[in-house]
Every structure is written in structure tokens, then in C-alpha cells.
Automatic annotation (TrEMBL), chains A, B:
Pfam families: Histidinol_dh. GO terms for cellular component: cytosol. Catalyzes the sequential NAD-dependent oxidations of L-histidinol to L-histidinaldehyde and then to L-histidine. This is Histidinol dehydrogenase.
């Protein structure tokens, strides 16, 4: 892992970071565009064709509820318990995000904001090697807390193989509408509807480049959550930090994929050196060491700063997805943080707690978008409608103002709605 | 205005509605792409070039604060009062949307959600003929309520002419950073930054097709608000409605532009006929009658239903931007509404009240996106960060669960962050 000290090195590293996930080849763009167009036109026929082609099976599109239970039986009981504990924690946290409709009456006028859940949501869960039950929990639970009535879930089953833990999570949350489809074709099916799948209002969930691009392309037709880029961790640490813990947390990010980014920012030369030693030791034992090594080499760095204030400034500029603060007084530091998806304070809060069980969502803004985006939450599954009800008195109080503004904006018919009610037309 | 009664007619009209705003010519796409690329590369030089070309002036990019005051002096005092009253109402409504950070502690674990305003926001206000002070109020006030520190505002001044009412609204709200630029070049300047304009985190505000497309293209680099389509009103009315009021409200929407859509859905044949008569009478007096007539012809309709229940179902399917309910008991009807940007209840709540002075935002989801989108609000100018702090006890309670899930997800280094802290590595 490279050690950066001077401003030039740091700023060229930051530029590299920003660029790491940009650009999709023209070929992939065309492929996705064609798949979407075909699904829109031919529905299930196209779905079946692409499932046969990419996932190499011809099983029915829908997974029967009885089959979900059957697949889930192959899951280890201990892991089921872990998922149940996690689900409860995630549920409790997201309940705090609930919003209520409100209204108030003043001078003969009722104004308010009606909060309603989205009617129908589609959730994409990746399949194959990267098939994670935690994805099910983190995407389904906020939708359920919001009160979404219809939840459709798509999870591809490459070679017809179904992940028992994903099925266990689905069964646990009571989701009945589950399809064994994936890729751009699944996104198209949820966005446009087919004979077997009803069109949804919003699509959420992670996926590979084909899925991400398809979501981007159907946006507008339906809503989507964020387009997640490669994962990131940034650790601010001082000399009080435990180097072994820091190294372990860095590696947990680096093992995700070669584009993942892991950064330590510290004012302690001693810590930096110890972390490097620890990384070497811990890395060698890992199954995914090749991925982790490549990720660390390209997008990993230890940034040495004069003081913690400078570390905070750099962190705010990067706006990381995950920010761990392992300093003497992390609660003090967090007050100066302006941009981060989630902050993990102190040595007993490794980021993987948040991936699975702590409660907050693991879908977080990446690539610097924490400057303006939020974690996935209940607020992503509701919509608001403004409510206005005037009586005659309330109307009269505002009528002059509305007429005056309509006149200078040159909208005569707007002004007429006022004049005609006053009997002045 | 056509009268639709049978289901086939109605459903083909709904299809027409959905399509009315789709499709941008390849030429416009290229133009916008080129302008953005040039602004990104050449900064102010490109800005000045395009301002000279499209707005036909060479005035400085920034409008001096003293000049804002000078321009504002030309505004009619009565209108200023109207804007002040509106601003106060808008402020009061949006204050109700404020959200507070929260956290809770349980079993040695602190979890929470930190709410922070966006740091820097760019607001686009159209210039020229469609330059509206209400746009300033409706976009600036929610950002100010959210606590956004830096607000930069762009308003083009075609032929160097500055709208005194727009300047009055800007002065009233204390905005100091104002640029006389417009079009795709203004969006590019806010998204990428130039020598005179610092990059923003989010761009909001309406604009023509060039502005809308530029916003879409810079999305991801910065956040944007919704892409507003042409305006819409849908009125549900029964025999108790005042036909003159209904007609006036329809025309206030139809005068916006030829793509605007105005729909009356009623179970009363008598009302339908009276509204048609009223439309003919009122239309003839209007300055913008040609626009209104074209809009009514193409995207206007009176839909005759058997009962109000059927009217509600069609309204929910259309998911209109503005929904007026003029029936005997509108408060009863509104409970059955699932999708609408804003609802206006009863005969004393014409939609223009909401455009200017009532309080709720006039930036509303169009084109059926009320299925999943909300009015512009304070929530558009904040971001959330999850907060996690575990002590050793809290960590130990979850450690088995996290390790178990990490193991079955095949993420060994994730499990290691747990094992190493337990001393088990």
C-alpha cells in the first residue's frame, strides 16, 4: 500500500479515485439497450430466451412459495438465527425513519403533506457467487416499514442453482412474489411489465454493470435507487488505534473487488508502519488475497497528515461510503464530518457490523455522492402529496397577492381563476 | 374539448398523455453535449461565448449585489408586497418539513441518523419571457429552510434585459451570488465549476429543453431535482361544482403551453355541458388563447364516468401534477387518492393559489411520476449519514451473527474483523 504525504500526490490520488468507476463500453451499452427493447416488445418470450442464454436453464419464471420454503430448508440453522437477529435490528432502526402525514389549519386554510407508501416495488438481488441474504434484508425491510403493499423480487439462479440463504431471508420476510430472472432482462421486466410480471413503480437493489446500466436506462419510466459504485472505506486513526483492527477493516473492504478502495488517514507515523506490517501478515492468510492485493495496490493508500484536522478535511473531500474513526475521542471528530454514507466510531465498530446486523442500511452512497445522497431508507419507499383546502375567507386573504403575481408573470388565465371567484369577471 | 365516454377512447387518450413529452431530437442532444464539454474544458471563455451567442450581450457573468438592488427598484410596490406575503407563507409551510438528527442507545450501542444540509446548491431560474419571481421563492426557500450555506443562482438576461421582479425576489431572500447566464452553459458551469463559478453539489430549478437535457446529462456528477415535464391539471367534479370556476381553472393550465394537459372527469352530464359553454366564453377573452386552444384540443378532455369512484380510479392511473376536487365532500374523496403531486379541495382552492402564495411548493411531479416522486421540499436539500458506535459489550452480542453471515457470504476478511477483535485470530 502506498504512503502519500505531499499535497500533489494526495490530489492526484483523489482524482484517480473519482475516475475509477466511470465509463461503460459502447458494446455493453448496446447489449443492454437491445435486451431492454426486446423485453419491452416480447415480454416473457424475451425473458425466457435470455435466461436460457445467460443463466443456462429453462425453469419457470416464478418461484413457487412452496419451493422457496423447500430451498430454504438447506440453510444452516445457526445462520438462520443470525439472519433473524439481523432482521430484527434492521427493522428497529428503520422504524425510526417512519414519517407521518401532517396538516394544519390557520385563517380558514388547511395545508398539509400526505405521506403514502409506493404501491409496487421491484427488488433486484444478485445471483450466483455474489448472492447475499443481507441484500434481501437491507432492501426488503425499509420497503415493508414504509408500508409498500406489493414487493416483487428478482434473483437469478445461474445453472438453475438456488441459494438457500437468500431463500431463507425471503421466506423470513414473507415475500411471496419471487422470480428467478436476472440481468438487464429482469430490470426490463420490472420496468415495463410482461405477461408474468406486473410493472413496478420503483426498482432497487445492487447488481453488476448490466443491471446498473439497465436501471439507469429505465429511470424516468420508473424510479430507481442510487447506482452503486465499487465499495470504499476510509479510516481516520491516531496513535491510539489498534493496528491489527485497522488492517483487518481495510482488508474487509479490499476483498470485495479490484475496484474497491481502502484508505487510512493518520497523523501517526508509527501506526502507519504497524498497519503495513499487519496488512502483510493478514493478507497472506486470505482466500481472496489476489483480489485484495490488486485493490490495495491500485486504490488503496495510507495518507500521512500533520494533524487530525487535515485528515478530516481530506475525508470530507472524498465523501466516503464507509468512514471509520479510530481516534482518542471519535465522538468529537464526528461533529466535523460533513460527507459520509455511514460513520463507525471507535475500535469496537468494524464496518462489517453495519453490513449485516447493526441496523442501519448497508446500501450507501459511493464515489463521492455522499455529498448529496443518503443511505437507502424508508424515505425511498414513500411519496408525498401536498394538500390545500381554502374556504372563502382564506381565499379572500390571498386573492390580491395571487392576482398581482399572476398579472406580472403574464398569466392572465391564472388571474382569472381569482377574479371569477370574486365575481369580478 | 373532446368528451370521452367509453373505455377504449379513454385508454388511448391516456397513452397519448404519457407520450406527449418524450423524445428529444438528436440535434438538440448533440448541441447540449457539446456545450457541456466546452464549458467543462474552457470555463468562463465558453460561458462568455455562449452568452454572447444566445443571449446577445457581453455583460459580466456575475450580477453585483448593488445592481440586484438597483434592478429591483423598478418593481411595483404592490407586487413586492404580494411576493413578501407569499415568501412568508412558503417559509411557514416548508418549516414543517424540517427533519432533525436522532440517535438512540441500547445494549452498549449507539445508532443514529445525522441530518445535514447540502453544502452548496445551484438554482436555475429561466430568463426572458418566462422569467418568474415565483420560481425564485419556490426553489430558494426550501434550500434556506434546510440550512444550505451557499446558494448560487443563475438567471439568463436575454438582450441584457433583467426582470425587476426576479431581482426583487432574489433581494428579498438575501441571495448574493447571482449569475446572468442561462441554458446548458449555465448548468455546465454549476456542475463542473469555472473560474468565476464554484462547482455545486445539486442543481434545481425549471428550464427549457436545453436546460432539462443538460441537467439529465450532468446527473451523477452532481445531484438534480426532477426533470419537470409540461404542466397538468385534472379536476374531479360532480354536479355541485361551479362550471365557471372549473372552466377558469382548466384555462389557467392550458395557457401555460401547447403541451399542457387539462382534464375534467365528472359523473354529471349537465356539468360537462356547462363547462364546455364556459370554456368557449372565457377562452375568447384571453391574450394567450391560441396556446390554450391548441393545448385543449390536443391534450384536453372531459371524461364522463358512471360515478365518482370511477373518476378516482382514472385519476390514480394518470397520477396528475395538480388534482382539484370539486365535489360535495372533497375531504372524503381525497382519502381514496393514491397518486398526485398536490390536491386542491373545494371550490375556493383554485390551483394558482398553490403556484404563488398558499405555501406548498409549486415544483411538482409531472407525467405520471407522482406514482413515485414528491413535490420539491426541504428533504431535497438535506442528506443523511448513519451513525454507529459499539462498545465491547455491544460488539460481543452481535459478533457471532456477523461472523456467521460473513462466512456463508464467502467474505472471509469480513469475518476476520470480528475474529481479530475477539482475539480469535
Amino acid at each position: 500500500m502506498k504512503v502519500l504525504k505531499d499535497n500533489k500526490e494526495i490530489s492526484s490520488f483523489l482524482k484517480l479515485l473519482r475516475k475509477r468507476a466511470s465509463g461503460v463500453s459502447y458494446e455493453i451499452q448496446c447489449t443492454v439497450k437491445n435486451i431492454l427493447a426486446e423485453v419491452r416488445k416480447k415480454g416473457d418470450t424475451a425473458l425466457n430466451k435470455y435466461t436460457h442464454k445467460f443463466d443456462k436453464h429453462d425453469l419457470p419464471i416464478k418461484i413457487k412459495t412452496s419451493d422457496i420454503a423447500k430451498y430454504a430448508k438447506n440453510a444452516d440453522k445457526k445462520v438462520i438465527k443470525a439472519l433473524e437477529l439481523s432482521a430484527k435490528r434492521i427493522w428497529d432502526f428503520h422504524k425510526k425513519q417512519e414519517e407521518k402525514s401532517w396538516s394544519f389549519k390557520k385563517y380558514g386554510v388547511i395545508l398539509g403533506q400526505i405521506i403514502m407508501p409506493l404501491e409496487r416495488v421491484g427488488i433486484y438481488v444478485p445471483g450466483g457467487k455474489a448472492s447475499y441474504p443481507s441484500t434481501v434484508l437491507m432492501n426488503v425491510i425499509p420497503a415493508q416499514v414504509a408500508g409498500v403493499d406489493e414487493i416483487a423480487l428478482c434473483v437469478p439462479t445461474p445453472d438453475g442453482e438456488t441459494n438457500p440463504y437468500v431463500m431463507a431471508a425471503i421466506e423470513m420476510l414473507g415475500i411471496k412474489e419471487v422470480y428467478r430472472i436476472g440481468g438487464a432482462q429482469a430490470i426490463g421486466a420490472m420496468a415495463y411489465g410482461t405477461e408474468s410480471i406486473k410493472k413496478v413503480d420503483k426498482i432497487v437493489g445492487p447488481g453488476n454493470i448490466y443491471v446498473a446500466l439497465a436501471k439507469k436506462m429505465v429511470f424516468g419510466e420508473v424510479d430507481i435507487d442510487m447506482i452503486a459504485g465499487p465499495s470504499e472505506i476510509l479510516i481516520i486513526a491516531d496513535k491510539t488505534a489498534n493496528a491489527a483492527f485497522v488492517a483487518a477493516d481495510i482488508l474487509s473492504q479490499a476483498e470485495h473487488d479490484e475496484l474497491a478502495s481502502s484508505i487510512l488517514i493518520t497523523n501517526s507515523e508509527v501506526l502507519a508502519e504497524r498497519v503495513i506490517q499487519e496488512l502483510n501478515t493478514q493478507l497472506n492468510g486470505l482466500k481472496r488475497k489476489d483480489i485484495a492485493r490488486k485493490s490495495l495496490k491500485k486504490f488503496g493508500a495510507i495518507i500521512k497528515t500533520k494533524d487530525i484536522r487535515e485528515a478530516i478535511n481530506i475525508a470530507n473531500e472524498i465523501a466516503p461510503e464507509h468512514l471509520e474513526i479510530m481516534t482518542e475521542n471519535p465522538a468529537h471528530i464526528v461533529k466535523m464530518i460533513k460527507n459520509a454514507g455511514a460513520v463507525f466510531l471507535g475500535q469496537w465498530t468494524p464496518e462489517p457490523l453495519g453490513d449485516y446486523s447493526a441496523g442501519p442500511n448497508h446500501t450507501l452512497p459511493t464515489g463521492g455522492t455522499a455529498r448529496f445522497s443518503s443511505p437507502l431508507g424508508v424515505y425511498d419507499f414513500i411519496k408525498r402529496t401536498s394538500l390545500l383546502q381554502f374556504d372563502k375567507k382564506g381565499f379572500m386573504i390571498l386573492s390580491d397577492a395571487v392576482e398581482a403575481i399572476a398579472n406580472i408573470e403574464g398569466l392572465e388565465a391564472h388571474a382569472n381563476t381569482i377574479r371569477i371567484r370574486r365575481g369580478g369577471v
